[in-house]
Amino acid sequence: DAMVIQNPRYQVTQFGKPVTLSCSQTLNHNVMYWYQQKSSQAPKLLFHYYDKDFNNEADTPDNFQSRRPNTSFCFLDIRSPGLGDTAMYLCATLGLINSPLHFGNGTRLTVT
Amino acid sequence: AQKITQTQPGMFVQEKEAVTLDCTYDTSDPSYGLFWYKQPSSGEMIFLIYQGSYDQQNATEGRYSLNFQKARKSANLVISASQLGDSAMYFCAMRGVFGTGTSLTVIP
Questions:
Q1: Is the CB of residue A41 less than 8 Å away from at least one CB of chain B?
Q2: Which in A10, A73, A107, B27 has the greatest CB count within 10 A?
Q3: Virtual CA dihedral for A50, A56, A58, A62, nearest 10 degrees?
Q4: Which chain B residues contact residue A90 at CB under 8 A?
Q5: Per residue in A43-96, pLDDT tens?
Q6: Distance CA A82, CA B16 (A)
Q7: Which of B37, B96, B99 is opposite residue A33, by nearest beta carbon?
Q8: Positive/negative CA dihedral, A39, A43, A46, A51
Q9: Greatest CA separation found in chain A?
């Protein structure tokens, strides 16, 4: 009964070839986050949605875009992946303001 | 904006001993919550414990407890009776912002 599901679990793409990662949730949470986590580093917040309100972190590259067509789904689009974009991408949702984040299992992206 | 600082990149603890992982924070919000998460080598992020800024008592969850000192803006995680399965990365977080993490290794 996974509540935040990320697909695919592993993704390999070529340098410069667009890739889309997906996240779905059954929790009906308003807030959804996308994080990038490189090996042995902390998760880095890329952007988040409050409902359809999109909030981009100041240092998120333009190469990274996101879509949230409805409450349940959120997508991360990397328009022209570089080798430095190889990382784990984590999706998380938030219900009440001071409740813990609910994480998916992540997508491990490798750019070759 | 929130800022979380974890100054211990790596910690070692003997099995069955207690260990304290440090976290300091900075925020201008009068009401806030602090979270600790565990991330094993498999990669999933596991919620451990939460402390609200107005909570009167330090949070406890089984072997996990928080040493919350509001005036010092610190929320240190204490793990008692360490187990081999506690070896993992530990992150302190607030409002979606994470600290740099501490890698804990439990030695048999």
A1: yes
A2: A107
A3: 170
A4: 45
A5: 999 999 999 999 999 899 999 999 999 999 999 999 999 999 999 999 999 988
A6: 45
A7: B96
A8: positive
A9: 40
